[in-house]
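Why this split exists: single-chain examples teach little about how molecules sit against one another. For that reason, every record in the complexes split bundles all components of an assembly together and asks for one structure covering all of them. Below is a record exactly as it appears in the raw files.
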Amino acid sequence: MRANRFVFALALALSAPACASFHVNTPSGFAELDDDAYDYRATSADGVVLAVRALRNRPSANLAFWSRAIDERMQQRGYTPDGEPRPVQSADGYAGVQYRYVIGVNGRPHRYWVTVYVKSGAFLRRSRVYIVEAGGDRETFEGATPLVERAITAFRCS
Amino acid sequence: MSRKSCFFARLRAAGALTGALLGAHALSACSAGQSYPRPSYAAAQVSGASAAPRAESLREESAAVDSDVAASAGFAPVAESPAATSAAPSPPPLPSAPGGPSRPPAAMPGRGPAGRTTPASSPASNPTAAQPAQAPSPAPAPMLVYTADVRLMVEQPQITEVLDRVTDLAYSLGGYLVRRNNSSVQVRVPSSRFRDGLRQVEGLGEVVQRSINADDVSEEFRDIEVRLQNLRAVRRRLEEFLARAANVTDALAVERELERVAAEIDRIEGRMRFLSARVAFSLVTVNVQPRPRQQPIVPEERPVPPRQLLNLPVPWLDTLGIGRLLNIR
């Protein structure tokens, strides 16, 4: 009877969906949106958007791999790097890399920041890649930059 | 035959002899690239039937004065003067004409570029001059006109300096400047210093090309030398005729012939001076070209093909970007 309980508990633990929790502070003046495209997305009234996605680490790779893959893909798509990649750290101590780009949208320059964290779990299925994106028209983004930076550094992977 | 008709017969015969001699040498001169007009006088006078035997007798008479002619030929005796031989040491490796014992260039070294040869020297000053006419001397040294072309490669800023040094070198060797432009210089140096000068020129830069040419003018010089001797013999005979002329008409006819012979002698002497100067001074042409800059060998510029991209099987990478981020519905 006791053995049956143990097997049941193990099966329950393995079958439970991996937790993709993270914590982000919605910047002041931003409104959190409810949509399916992102795990989290908030926007300011003038169009600066902050979004987070928690993705399974498949294929399993480290921060160097994902940061390089992201930068390659963005530059392929015409994003111009705005400075060197910046090492960042989440509020709970996970290392990350932030890339900043400039790109034109409808003839206007826009800023686009993408920050990647990799959280390696005890089980492979718990390993996560967190993508924190921020962007908007360059003019409006300049005013929201401190808020966005604060939100990124306050980001927690758990 | 009266005395007057005898005089004219001898005069005609002299004219025939002059024409024959000049005509024969004109052929050899033309073959050497020079144009000497064949005297029309010969063609006009030789037609007389009685002129031929008298011409023969005159030729014999002229042979009798060969020793005088040789002495008055000028160039050969001058060459044997002690001053001349001491002033022109012949370079051992280049048997240039200035070293020849009986050639005019031997008398020329030491003269300036505008130096003039005095072809006629008196027999009295050179009593041995008549010897070559009586006993043939051994084969004379060839008269060679040396020309050298040297192409040097130097650094671009040194071109003018090298040209200056070539000019200075020519002067120091006793030569002179012929012409010069931005990249080349032409100088003449004494043939006795030709090799020395050429060696020094070649030390001024990297020799890219060198050519040396020796043009043998011995045959032409000998031809016109003999021709000159004969013309002088004819002139001597004409002067004798002139002294014996009985009246003004005869004297005028002889004067005309004398004038023509004298002009021909002047032409030949000028040609001999020209050849002598060419033999005595060798022409050195130096072309200087800049050294090309050393440039690294760069492969041909080809457009670099775009890097082949690895298409990671990660769909969410394609969803990154500001378009999706700002797309709020």
